């Protein structure tokens, strides 16, 4: 599975996106290195999801550059970016609810094997039984790393939202990303579940060396687990800094925390 990562990680620079007359992003940048959790926050409509879409290739920018470990992604499709190690989850849970936790995670492993790259093509030539064994082995590793082993044979539809969020994370991890984009991963979780989820993310980053870029509205989770935080406001960069710097920034309080915490 994943070696502890090195390299520059994901970097977006000077990104501009317009929707008709609306400038959704105006010279925005973000950097998510491996081995770190990076937060991307801002009030509603600040441009967070649009920036995620630019990074994963779902939205073409008018201007700006996105690189993964120094390689320019401009000409790469979303699926090519995924194969290069850029994973993503979405705000809405998109799991196979009639399948077990293990089957969902194995689906993630298979999705990577079926993608085109020389190594996975070699894998496909392995016999059916050898291939199944390998998929099961990789799924076991991910189930272990995400603490989902006890739930492996449960049908996903019977799980709580918090457990479902973990399954979603595990399925994304099964694709062996170097950098993982998480869109509001704590959505639908209660405060205790959210704290547990945050702990799990920190453990994954420490044990696997992946980098996480996270859009999240739960400020206590962001301030607790992020090593570095980028703040957007009305499509422009407002500031970037540590949790303490963000917490104590009058600009952020005025633009965001003030409204959220009020
Ligand atoms: N496809 C689109 N067409 C037109 N306008 C869009 C489109 N997508 C986003 N926008 C606009 O661009 C701006 C940024 O939206 P975006 O969804 O990126 O913000 P956000 O920070 O993710 O917001 P939220 O926290 O509410 O999810 C908003 O004004 C939004 O209405």
Description:
Keywords: ATP-binding, Nucleotide-binding, Transport. This is ABC transporter domain-containing protein. Residues 10-259 form the ABC transporter domain. The chain is an alpha/beta fold and 262 residues long. It folds into two domains: 6-85 and 177-216 and 224-262, Rossmann fold, CATH 3.40.50.300; 96-176, no CATH class. Helices cover 42% and strands 23% of the residues. It contains ten helices and ten strands. It has helices spanning 48-56, 78-83, 101-114, 118-125, 128-145, 161-173, 191-208, 219-225, 243-248, 250-261; strands spanning 10-19, 22-32, 37-41, 63-68, 71-72, 86-89, 179-183, 211-215, 228-233, 236-241. The strands form two sheets. A six-stranded mixed β-sheet has the order 6-7-8-3-9-10, sandwiched between helices. A four-stranded antiparallel β-sheet has the order 2-1-4-5, with helices on one face. Strand 4 and strand 5 (71-72) form a beta hairpin. Helix 3 packs across helix 5 (128-145) and helix 3 packs parallel to helix 6. The radius of gyration is 18 Å and the shape is globular. It starts with 9 loop residues before the first strand and ends with a helix. Bound molecules: adenosine-5'-triphosphate. Residues 19, 22, 24, 42, 44-50 line the site of adenosine-5'-triphosphate.
